[in-house]
Design brief:
The structure is a homotetramer of 328-residue chains.
Chain A (H helix, E strand, L loop, with lengths): L5 E4 L22 H10 L5 E5 L9 H11 L2 E6 L18 H20 L4 E5 L4 E2 L7 H18 L4 E5 L8 E2 L4 H10 L5 E6 H6 L4 H10 L3 E6 L18 H12 L5 E4 L8 H22 L1 H8 L4 H13 L3
Parallel strand pairs in A: 1-2, 1-10, 2-3, 3-4, 4-6, 6-8, 8-9, 9-10
Antiparallel strand pairs in A: 5-7
């Protein structure tokens, strides 16, 4: 019987996304607990991502548990952001100020505890301020060493919660140290821990000129593909757009490889619908991914695998287009 | 009754495309006249693009006419390349050497005559060597003035043949003067001629961060959309790939706008299938475009126009995905 | 006697720049009038850019005049932003809601009046929300027509204040209609007004793959180069970095062409020093530009013009490097 | 006493570089042995790169030795290209055809033997055909496993010759498996060999959005920085331009880090001067790099290291600009 994916989403669409030109945001935010209830009300999600401490924290944890239980939503992952505060402007894990690094590490550990308290088993963060903008403004020797040490310390905090590193080439820093799948794997190769892996964000991978199926395979081979974010973009920036709004075949490839490796963790959405209907942005993305899942089943994993072995993009495309579009 | 597009292709797929690492090309070329017959044998093309003098010339013109007549293929356009010879390395129309400019102008004029001789009504060229690589290596004042003068002279050669300028941001020069739709229109605004317009190449437009529908509209509004090339790419380079192999919605938008403006000239392919089956590359691209044409008809121009007026990408996507993919 | 440039800056460096990950901004802002005094205190600026109504408005205009007079700073330009409010999220000049377009037009007109009141002669805005993100979410026919009409109406408001359009390929919209130099010139070609031109922002031009010298020349030839913004970036995004922090030769080319055309308006800075010392960001950029100005004088305009005529980037580079770096 | 770099160059500038629009090349090539003599005659190179078998081979090896000895040029490295033949079009080390993989492996081994015969100690290749263009046309599981096995076999062929892998994001394939520094290190982490490392090509690293100093540091930390190629580009493509023709500070950073880690291998050039004077392209690049080397010495490694620790790009820039440009 075919494995079914579990679908989740981050709650950003209802949290008033903004940008540097409209920092007040493009619409009013729902309060955190209402976002959660609202997400449940869409009826298409199996789980949610919750940010610690902005959306779930020591104060509201019991209420969050109750809502999850009432709505039947599972906790997909806890986000523990360490890139969105002024104190982390020159780096969280790679700041030259040891007290800043301590704050960041402790924040993630507290998020791991919160995750366990909620019955979850994985947390994630991205290192958006741990990078550089200008030439000759960072001592990479120090930075890389602090980054590895900090993550190792987090990993040893508790082994029942997995740490998902979210690599990304740039933004907000013009260059982020943890910038792509190869660098993430090289970093993990140096950390002696079984609970440090990766959340692959398709948008970040497209920015990094990666081929989605290959990145999935490389992470799987290393047993480090822990979590998955879908969104679409124009390849030059992290647009966080509705899945399938730009690309088609790259997402078919991603779904094929997720199924081929027997991926059994969450398929989640990381969307920033600044001007679009946030409910539609989420429901359309989920509907699209579920349809791709079916399409791969309908054509058959074996048939697609056999196509790979012809090394002819035109031949694969003919099969997919005939099935999906009814071309002849 | 809905307008039907006429489909054509350039013959490059059978002409042994190569690159700087494999200048000998990725497979053996068919001789020019065989390319033509072979293209006809696919049974999906209404017309072809022919390069002057490489594929059609004073020597073989009678034979080309006979093949066109025998196969029922129409001549979509004559290409008159002025970027692929060593003498044009520092510019064809903008070379500082007047004899080089003269050679380029005369070449295009001869191509116009050949086009008329073949019963055609439009020629095209792109100005791939008319640009620059390094800072401070070109006097833009001279270059722009020679470019405009040269094109004006070509235009006055005969008014029964239209000149299609093919803009492109870069390659082979790192910066091409005639680099995007706005620049092309600004140049045309300065030339007093009714037979100078544009061939919009979707790959070039994607490289230039253009939105296909908008570029179609801007050219149409100026009555300068003469010819159209489809191909796909990853937005960073002119990959000349099979249509639909990467993008989906941008092509739906393109087809909608072509239909909305009542475009009645050729839809042609400019593909470089280095490693793929060349026949499949062409037939799949045509099948895909014909299916997009149907899809837009099925949904209806008016329905899509109404969607535009909601300014919500999510809503449009829902309609398209439901129709095309059967999402719900 | 060599023409001397006048140097100015926008006050953003002291206005707490932020981004979508740190919307609270990277440091505390100075209040508007203190920004102005602080900018004067650096001792390197001849003028400033003031935003209407955030920095100068009907309430504080007399005080602003006094500070300008006391400090000897000139008003370089008034900015009249129409991309930074929620009401303009789906377009300012191209919104489908006529009352939104009206608000935007009136805002710019009021800014023109304020500019005149301050003794200035030019205003500027960029159309960052007038664009699109998704395929098939905008009716380009309407949008382009409203954009041209709106600007024509502004232009006719008063002819003693020039309107500087600031083109930019994208951000915040993923595609901005007024996206590059060619498109700006094509738009201006359609508006019958003598006071509509362009502010060339080097960062926006680099994003658009333009060659700075060529864009300067094209705007000058059309008599539409009204204002100039310098900043640097990595070519993929509007990083608004210190001038010369990444590129070198492209800026030498820009300065050469500004001098060659006898540019006599302002050289201004549009910098976002999120994490850097804001005073240093400004003073270093000015020092750099003044040195480039001297370098071009030292080598000589004629010498450089003669180099252009050799069409050999290596030869030009040798002359510049020998002079600047002392290579041999 | 300060370490002095050794400077070398590939001979491409005199080998008639071409591209897909001018496959016949932009000028006549010198025959291989004359290229070598000509390179020596410039008087600025300590060594050269030689391609096997195109430039050095079993037939001419004695003559090559004699020329090297006569001219005093050292052999910097032997290139063993496996991306420039039709048989490798669908991959050299990752072809599904075992006989193709065998041919590629044997070619590299023969190049290693030739290198030893010439008294050299390192060879290099890049895997430009080992990648993909279309979605779902490669089985990454097979490909990665063949790639690692093939390189391991080469490494075990002889341990007195080091293998330098040249990573690159794309071209000729639209995606190359060995695409960036992190991926290269992750691959090397899996191969049990002490003689497999990396040639860092600055152009490839810029294409991959890397920060040159960081990539140098990461490779050095892993003891895998074996060889170094300088060239410049616009970050979107492998333009292989004269060093310093576009960027400045990124190259200062690269030279600082090379000196800080005590890099003692070759600094070489990989340039494609299609239209420029080839001798000038090489001599200017060398003069530029030697000057950067001096500049870093003049300012002092310790001073720059101290600047890194301020995490302020503006402050670093002030010091560099004052020293280099004489700004104040």
């Amino acid at each position: 019987m075919a494995l079914k994916f579990k679908y989740a989403a981050a709650l950003i669409p209802w949290a008033n996304p903004g940008d540097r030109f409209l920092r007040a945001g493009y619409r009013e935010a729902l309060p955190p607990l209402q976002r959660l209830k609202h997400a449940a009300s869409l009826g298409v999600l199996d789980g949610v991502e919750l940010m610690y401490p902005a959306e779930v924290n020591e104060e509201n944890v019991q209420e969050v548990k109750r809502i999850l239980s009432d709505t039947g939503l599972a906790l997909a992952i806890v986000g523990t952001p360490i890139s969105s505060e002024r104190r982390f402007a020159n780096g969280a894990l790679t700041s030259r100020d040891p007290s800043v690094r301590r704050t960041a590490i402790d924040r993630v550990k507290a998020g791991m505890d919160m995750c366990a308290e909620l019955g979850g088993n994985q947390i994630m963060f991205f290192l958006g301020q741990d990078g550089c903008d200008y030439s000759l403004e960072v001592d990479y020797e120090e930075a890389w060493s602090w980054m590895a040490e900090s993550i190792a310390e987090m990993a040893s905090h508790r082994d029942d919660v997995k740490i998902c590193l979210e690599y990304k080439p740039f933004e907000p820093r013009r260059h982020i140290f943890l910038n792509d799948v190869g660098t993430a794997l090289h970093l993990i190769d140096q950390i002696d821990a079984d609970n440090v892996g990766v959340v692959l964000d398709t948008g970040h991978a497209l920015m990094a000129n990666e081929t989605l199926g290959e990145s999935i395979w490389l992470l799987h081979r290393a047993r480090r593909l822990y979590h998955f974010h879908f969104n679409d973009n124009y390849r030059g920036w992290d647009d966080d757009m509705i899945v399938g709004s730009i690309h088609f075949m790259p997402f078919v490839e991603a779904v094929y490889w997720l199924k081929r490796i027997g991926y059994s963790s969450w398929i989640s959405l990381d969307l920033f619908p600044y001007r679009e209907d946030p409910d539609l942005a989420v429901t359309e993305s989920i509907a699209y991914l579920k349809r791709l899942d079916e399409i791969v089943d309908e054509i058959g994993l074996e048939t697609i695998t056999e196509l790979l072995h012809h090394n002819d993009g035109a031949r694969t495309l003919r099969v997919i287009n005939r099935h999906v579009l009814g071309t002849n």
